[in-house]
């Protein structure tokens, strides 16, 4: 049989924050403030972990990403052409904005 261990976290907040949290807890129908706070913390922690795992799911994904940032490949012809088109676009808009003013 496993033993349930209750750990404790102490947090100091302003009276206004506590009243806000109590109000939200009551609106959601939680039995007490602790239950609401634990629910919110767990929900947010899972969300953060899932978002992190979605972007870079494995250590190999992270290694590949970091390698691409630290050692980017040389631009190919399509990328060079895209950069040239972007520069031309910016120049055209800059000239257009000057003539409008």
Explained architecture:
The protein has 101 residues and is mainly α. Helix content is 72%, strand content 0%. It is built from four helices and no strands. It has helices at residues 15-28, 33-55, 59-70, 77-100. The longest helix has 24 residues, at 77-100. The chain is elongated, with a radius of gyration of 26 Å. The model has no long low-confidence stretch (mean pLDDT 89).
Condensed summary:
The chain is mainly alpha-helical and 101 residues long. It is built from four helices and no strands.
The separation of the N and C termini measures: 78 Å
Strand proportion: under 5%
Count of distinct strands: 0
| Rg over CA atoms | 26 Å
With helices defined by DSSP (H or I, 4 residues minimum), what is the helix count? Answer: 4
Order of helices and strands: HHHH
* Amount of helix: over 70%
Q: What's the average pLDDT?
A: 89
Helix-strand makeup class: mainly alpha
Query: Biggest β-sheet, characterized?
Result: none
**What are the low-pLDDT stretches, counting only 5+ consecutive residues below 50?**
none
Q: Rough shape?
A: elongated
Task: Kindly list the characteristics that best describe this protein.
mainly alpha; 4 helices; 0% strand
SSE order and pairing:
Blueprint lengths: L14 H14 L4 H23 L3 H12 L6 H24 L1
